[in-house]
């Protein structure tokens, strides 16, 4: 259903069964078998009507003949359906609202579902395309011209009404339920499943005329019990058994019909008329574009690609390129975003190309004339996926990352790296005092980082990285076992010939649910082989879009196992050769005014007192997460100089900053344009700078989680709800899953954060979890409901889980760190903050959670902390400090 580019002139795709059968008895009979199969249903149908062995007592009124008659009508109507007229009527596209992509989706409980954010990848924005402003506006308008889901539901239902006979749709009272089920199916988010039970929700056999009791008169006559000797009780018993059997048959027939309706009518209907995709701003929500509209988006994107050094390749050239290597090409698809599109390449999948074509000629010597057409046979040449071939190169570069981190400059790869660098810096700044000196912060983002990498420069950098002539790799296997599946992943590990420590160190990084199997099997890889694969990957990146091939001329491929490492090594070279020397030149002795220092213990205000000044050297801190810079200095002059240097860009590396994504915490004359969205000011007056999912306090360097990404969308767009299996178990697991991303030590270490902010971070994490809990339960309640006491127990379990997880994470970070993490937190405080957060969130949805609120309030009032709340807890639950959270739509 997703990403289908094929266009169809008929209401269904070309190869649909309704396009291959004729509207006669033979076609209808074959469709009966297609829908109801050769199972016990057909056996039951044959018993109900012995049409194969004798005359039917009911004629066309029996179930089988009724189905054949209805399906004849269905086939005939499908061939003459005016679907384009219905599409134009129900999916009429008006001039799009500029903010529409942020507000699309299904309307539910008076609010709209929102959209999703994807990882960075090849970007094709409208402002980078050559063309007139009118052409650019046309592209932007096409991107925003998707159909609302309510329109799609209306169109699908109109087609169903026009081609499906009324007997198969049920009575008018049944239509409402069926349409609602279709609406729920179309409103599904990514990765959600729709079961037959959901398709059948509130549908009853009695509301379908073709399953009415009169259709079973033939069955009653044929299956009436014989030899009962006039005993009425035995007759009644036989009649009861017959009625039960008839009911089971009816249910199975209805299930088969509804399953076929959804899988073979509704899904193909969507495939033939809409391009279904996610959006960068839509999180898990899906978007439906008319095929004609998507064609415009695709054509304009191809024009942009050619303007951005993507070169068209013919099939022969493509074949010559990929035959020289083990991996083939990557399929490309277009993902819409707010001001353009992103190009997403799948480097995980294998590929194939036609190798040889020949025709089986007519061997009849012309006797059959033209009655026997030539048949074409195509043989394919198969190629491994890009990522699979690059595994050895990835293993080598990953090892170099740990053994020679200086080659990556200021690179960090996750919160752990940021934390291990930021914490010692903050400790050093405070120097045992509760006071924080003035700090000056610069955050910036490289414009189109992956797409602007100079390929020749990158390969030059890699020559300095890969210096050993031969590398030895040990092949280990990671066996990952979860509740749903068992996976075996091959993990090549670089081996140091002088020591066996590499294997041991790699064990640390494995999943908790996995076992690393070392089979003591190793092999050597030549540097030339690694360089050949790397050169082919960078300089010969072949992409396929809509059966056409393109070669990427500038930048590096994304989605490969090497993407982030290559980018980090490239900009790491920039750090070592340009930025680090520049920062050394701008170093200066500074005089720090203690009168303007900030009290770390009280995040709400700065202490003013001492007028003393002390002489210190300027201290600075620099990290870069792929292409996002964070610079902190105690010298305003140094921070201003660094900002100016970034603003000029680095021509030798084709590296320039995105002017819209600069952020600073001090006044600077060169700051162009409107205020940056990297700066966030809360209602409590505290200013933050946004950096890679973190909010960094502009004065104290305290760290909070950045929840601004949730503001533009309904929170339900971030969820994946599971209605199958054991929903209660899924919900219990989800509540724990929601806590994990916000349980990093960077939020709770008292070396960085005050006691008040530590508790505020916990409170905000619970607020978000409670909002997601409400959205999940609301969606789940359409099919399944649990008692409120069970919900309360789930919540209580998640509170304890968070405390245990925080302690575990703090212990794990301590291993191998040069500093001592400090956790000053009691389990009771976490429980109290969690209960308080859930109550505050659910109070805004009282009509749904009245009884649950009563249970949680009772637990909160009986908690030992209630009545003696500390100032730190009071600060944490103060509404002004979480004003951002209350702007989230849920």
Describe this structure in words.
One of its GO terms (cellular component) is chromosome, telomeric region. Belongs to the reverse transcriptase family. Telomerase subfamily. InterPro entries: DNA/RNA_pol_sf (IPR043502), RT_dom (IPR000477), Telomerase_RBD (IPR021891), Telomerase_RT (IPR003545), TERT_C (IPR049139). One of its GO terms (molecular function) is metal ion binding. By secondary structure, the chain is α+β, with helices and mostly antiparallel strands. Among the domains are: 231 residues, Topoisomerase I, Chain A, domain 4 (Orthogonal Bundle); 163 residues, no CATH class; 182 residues, Telomerase reverse transcriptase (TERT), thumb domain (Tetracycline Repressor, domain 2, Orthogonal Bundle). The protein has 29 helices and 28 strands. A hairpin with a 2-residue loop joins strand 1 and strand 2. Helix 5 runs antiparallel to helix 8, helix 8 crosses helix 10 and helix 19 packs antiparallel against helix 21. The longest helix is centred in the first third of the chain and has 42 residues. It is globular, with a radius of gyration of 33 Å. It starts with 16 loop residues before the first helix and ends in a 13-residue tail after the last helix. The relative contact order is 0.08.
Shape: globular
Number of strands: 28
What's the architecture of the domain at 17-110 and 133-269 in CATH terms?
Orthogonal Bundle
The residue fraction in helices comes out at 40-55%
Q: Give the rounded overall mean pLDDT.
A: 84
Instruction: Provide the low-confidence segments as ranges.
Output: 97-121, 216-230, 358-374, 500-509, 600-616
Strand portion: 15-25%
The biggest sheet, with number of strands, parallel, antiparallel or mixed sense and barrel status, is: 6 strands, mixed
Measure the end-to-end span.
28 Å
> CATH class of the domain at 17-110 and 133-269, anyone?
Mainly Alpha
- Please give the radius of gyration in angstroms: 33 Å
- The tally of helices reads 29
Quote the CATH topology of the domain at 17-110 and 133-269. Answer: Topoisomerase I, Chain A, domain 4
Structural class: alpha+beta
Main location: nucleus
Pfam family, one: TERT_C
Family: Belongs to the reverse transcriptase family. Telomerase subfamily.
Subcellular location: Nucleus; Chromosome, Telomere
